[in-house]
Each structure stands twice: as structure tokens, then as C-alpha cells.
Amino acid sequence: MSAPTGPAAVRASAAIIVAAVLDEGRSLDDLLAVESDEGSARGLKRSLCYGTLRWHVRLAAVLNALATRSPDQLAPRLRALLEIGLFQLVSGETAAHAAVAETVNAAKVLGFEQAAGFVNAILRRFQREQADILHAIDRDVALRTAHPRWFVDALRKDRGEAALAALDANNAHPPLWVRVNSMRGDVAWAKGELEAAGFTVTPHPLARDALQVAPPADVRSLPGFMDGRVSVQDAAAQLAIELLDPQEGDRILDACAAPGGKTCHVLERTNGNAEVTALDVSEPRLLRIRENLERLGLQARMVAADVENVRGWWDGRPYDRVLLDVPCSATGVIRRHPDIKVLRRARDIPTLARKQSNLLAAAWEVVKPGGRLLYTSCSVLAAENERVVAAFLARTPGARDLTPELTHGWPPRPAGAGPGYQVLPGETGMDGFYYACLGKPL
């Protein structure tokens, strides 16, 4: 798509993207990746797309309260544009008169000239009735927090009172975390360089290589990024290395490795002196791993294979450490990828859980006696985390959950929470993440 010019054209372009997510099930990141905007137009479009999809469930309820006919009867791009207009009015990031005028103009850009009056009427009515409409809608937690009802129900069942804070955290702008490459400098040095560049920098209390950088910026502008001294990685993902505890000389498998952040972290922590295999089912995704390794000056063996087909890729030599970051619902990273609220369905979860169970069983085969396997996911649902691991432990003689002793000193989990350790979105500034470190008997 050619770069739009002018505020109305930017809004029209954003409506096309939002409609593609809502009605075609496409990825927001993929859609934005092919856009050619620069400068303020790029920033505005991304803000409109992310904001509208983040609040879609709530905005759809608002639109339903305003429209005299079902919004589902509207053309997808017109409906998306109306949600964009409503988002601007609710967020207050754009002056109300400009939000209305440019959304009306965007309807014309999209070819909905005859609907321009309708768009104007909807937005003007919302301006008049905003307080009453939002008061009525926000009595429903799912609508107030703009999450699908199935997810709200599942999270409240799994996490109790902590669910509400996690839902609110999902709607906050995510912080920028970087990982300091311990082979090329220490955290104190990196903190000093970043602060000298004008950033506010905060270490993480548990992830010892992690620094939070504010305000968020283009990663290429960060001191040390281009030459491999720092990498972008959420602190929750960095905590995995503390549980895996790789040692120099270890033979280590990073299963489901792409895009390679944890592979690189393993090598950094072992000074490049571990025999690391990065395995992923997708050959193209291995290219991302290779790019990260090259930027950091690291080396690993890369294999394109399905973890489950052990006989097809394994050479028979067991691994001291196995990191299994399973494909999941990604419900722990909604604040970074708000389209997950739209793209994920309740029916996806049992299918994912079966896949996760199969992957765990296969990966366990290649762990050497006395070694450990770290099961991780960026889900916050027990069906993909505690229940998968509990079922594995119940059917696997000798397998032991090492997580409680390894997380001693971390914030305590609720009594009876099940095996492993669940971080919820927003806790210590982190994304949602789950860890279960399992020991194999000698």
C-alpha cells in the first residue's frame, strides 16, 4: 500500500488494516510491516491501529449502543473506521473536533461518501452521550477491559482476584526491556551509556541482565544495539535463563527456538562455551535466529525440524539442558499484540494444549539423566501451563518439579497454584509468562 498523505488518508489506511484483522483474521504486525509510512504519519497510523484493536471489544459495544441498525450490517472498513473515530474520542489523544472531521473525511477517502453524514451523526451523538454510554457498558468487566468474554471467564477461574489487575495491565502500553550481553559489558556499564543518551533506566529485581528503558524508542537508536551489546527482550523471557541455569561445556537444546532471543541468552550466559542446538519447525524462522546470532557474534547449530519427530533430527546424544518454549495462545503478551484479543478463540486452547503435551513428551526423551527441561509459554491460561505440566508429572515416573526451590525468593504464588510458576502481565513490569523446570532422575 502506498503511503497515505494527510490525516484523513492516514485514518482511511488504518481502517483498512483494522478491518483486515477483524474480518480476515490477519496479523496486525504483518499488515504494518508492509506499510511504507514515515514520520508522524507512521506514528499516527500505528497508534490508531493498536489503540482501536486494544479497545475493540469496548468500542464495538459503544457502536452497538449508538447505531440504529446492527454494526455487523455495515461494510467492514466503514465499521472499522467508526471504531477508530470512537477510539480517538475516548482516548482524548486527538482534539474532538479534529477526530470527528477527519474521520468523516476518511469515510470519503474510502469511498463511503454517502455514509459521511452517518459517520458524523454517530460520533456527534457519542460526544453528547459519552458519559452515560460508558457508564452502562463498563459495568461489565469484559466490556470495560475490552477482552473477549471467554478469556475473562477463564482467567478469573484460573487466577482469581489477580485476574482483574492482569486484564487492566493488558491495556497499558508495554515497557521497553533490553538484555545486556554479559560477554561484551555489564549491566552497570549499559545503564550508564543509556542514561548518558537521555533515557531513564531501571534494573529488574530478578532478571539480572535486564534493564527497563524509558521512554520506549526505536531499538536501532539504543547505544549498544547495533554492535550486539544489548538486545530487546522482555524481562519475563529473560528470567528463563535463571531457571535453566546453563553451564559452560553443557550440551543444550533450545526447542521451538525462533526468533532466537533465548538461544542467544544461553550463549551469552555461558560465554559462548556451550554446545547449543537451536531447533525450529520453520526454516524461514531460522533466518531470524541466524541474524540475531550474527549481530551478537555467537554460534549455534541450527536445525529445521519438528520437535515431536525425535528420530528425524536427534543424533542420540542426550542434552544437559533443554529449553522448550511451546507454541501457545500468547495471551500473556496481549499488551504488545492487541490483535490476539480478536484472533484467539476459546476453541484454540484444547488444540494448543494437546500440542504442548506432545512436545513436552518428545523433548523429555532427549534430556540426559540428571538433566533438566524448562517448559515455558507466554500464555496465562492454566490449560496450557499448570495442567499440561501436572498431567506430564503424573504419567512420568521420576520427573520432579524443581521450580519451587529455584524460584525461592521470587514473589510467592497462590497456595495450590499447581506446578511451575506463573507471572501475570504487569507484575514487576513484565509480560505474562509461565515456567516449569523439570528434573530428570539419574
What does this entry look like structurally?
This protein is α/β, with parallel strands linked by helices and 442 residues long. It folds into 3 domains: 7-146, N-utilizing Substance Protein B Homolog, Chain A, CATH 1.10.940; 176-232, Alpha-Beta Plaits (2-Layer Sandwich), CATH 3.30.70; 235-439, Vaccinia Virus protein VP39 (Rossmann fold, 3-Layer(aba) Sandwich), CATH 3.40.50.150. The chain has 20 helices and 12 strands. The strands form 2 sheets. Strands 5, 6, 7, 8, 9, 10, 11 and 12 form an 8-stranded mixed β-sheet that branches. It has a 4-stranded antiparallel β-sheet with strand order 2-3-1-4, covered by helices on one side. A hairpin with a 6-residue loop joins strand 2 and strand 3. It is globular, with a radius of gyration of 23 Å. The chain starts with 6 loop residues before the first helix and ends with a strand. The model has no long low-confidence stretch (mean pLDDT 95).
